[in-house]
Amino acid sequence: MGKVVLVTGVARRLGGRFVRRIQRDPEVDRVVAVDAVPPEHHLGGAHFIRADIRQPAIARVLAEHSVDTVVHMDVTGTPLGSGSRATVKETNVIGTMQLLGACQKSPTVKRLVVKSSTNVYGSAPRDPAVFTETTPPKSLPSGGFAKDTVEVEGYVRGFARRRPDVAVCVLRFANILGPGADSPLASYFSLPVLPTVLGYDPRLQFVHEDDVVDVLRIASHEPRRGTLNSGTFNVAGDGVLLLSQCARRLGRPTAPLLLPAVTWIGSAMRTLGMTDFSPEQIRLLTHGRVVRTQQMRETLGYEPAYTTAQTFADFARSRGPGLLPPEALAGAVDRIAALPVLGGGHPPTHSAN
Q: What 3-state class would DSSP assign to 84?
């Protein structure tokens, strides 16, 4: 008999994609898809169960279907439909506690995969240039999705100590982008004008949603020879992009503002429902965040199909042209650069970006 995989958070597009993908694996016999609301997308041949992981009933689902692999994707920073931030936090934290409690009591569960985020490192002015999986944050996140992920990972570590017979894999994904991305950062990049913090140009990393699905699939199975898929892994595409580069590639103008003004605008946008411009996102757009992915390659054995720049390019194509088309913007930069330089010197022949 093949594996029985339970996946949470399937009402979201990324969860639905993973459910459809893992059904094609020959070693998987059944996929049990769980969420509190019915998905609007197709789940293939998966068995959908409408269940709230915040309730103890999730333990009955594990027992009835003899689940041996749990993929917990219902850890997210955005509400679904008309949900609120309070509901998201309850699902992230209380839901994870209930799910782990059910897994602890289940004799059939042998593997747990948790979708986490590099938000656990926070964003602070004294952060190291690059975070590894063992680098402690300079200042722990004080709220929002970042704090949720810190609490979730704490509960997962406790579960791993209590059930050492279960293989536990925590995947810390960088900012997920792609044509179907649904995240606060994707909403920010979709604004016609991008508010930025005056004097800062943070470094950003992205991971493509295709790579997210592939990494989750690798973590859900027995490790390939020479690899290990238990532990904590940073997952991101190669390279970094500056926020200013992102804006130019989108063709969207920026509005540099003092930090208090950006904070005020973020609150106004959240109130109007335009985008979740949270304090943690403002810190990211101020100080940035870069992680090392050596363990992902050497231990997990995964090489991303998309770099950070390729991921962003695919996302930008799905969003359409901005107010300043990149080609026209590049031409304007070239013309400015070709003007005689005051005080002598040789002008550059082409733009840097």
A: coil
DSSP state, residue 120:
G
Q: What is the pLDDT of residues 276-328, one digit of tens each?
A: 677 888 899 999 999 999 999 999 999 999 999 999 999 999 887 766 666 55
Q: 353 pLDDT band (50/70/90 cuts)?
A: very low
Q: Burial of 350 by CB count in 10 Å (0-12 exposed, 13-18 middle, 19+ buried)?
A: exposed
Long-range (24+ apart) CB contacts under 8 A made by 33-39 are: 33/6, 33/7, 34/6, 34/7, 34/8, 34/10, 34/58, 34/61, 35/8, 35/9, 35/10, 35/11, 35/74, 36/11, 36/91, 37/11, 37/80, 37/81, 38/11, 39/10, 39/11, 39/12, 39/15
> Which stretches of the chain are assigned E, i.e. beta strand?
3-8, 28-35, 47-50, 69-72, 111-117, 167-173, 175-177, 194-197, 203-204, 206-208, 231-235, 241-242, 254-257
pTM value surpassing 0.90 = no
Judged against a pLDDT cut of 50, whether residue 38 lies above it is answered with: yes
Residue 272: pLDDT band (50, 70, 90) is low
Residues whose CB falls within 8 Å of the CB of residue 161, separated by 6 or more in sequence, listed in order: none
Structure tokens at 125: 């002015």
**304 burial type by CB count under 10 A (0-12 exposed, 13-18 middle, 19+ buried):** buried
Residue 334 three-state SS: helix
Place of tokens 């944050």: 137
Query: Binning pLDDT at 50, 70 and 90, where does residue 275 land?
Result: low
Average pLDDT estimate for 105-117: 97
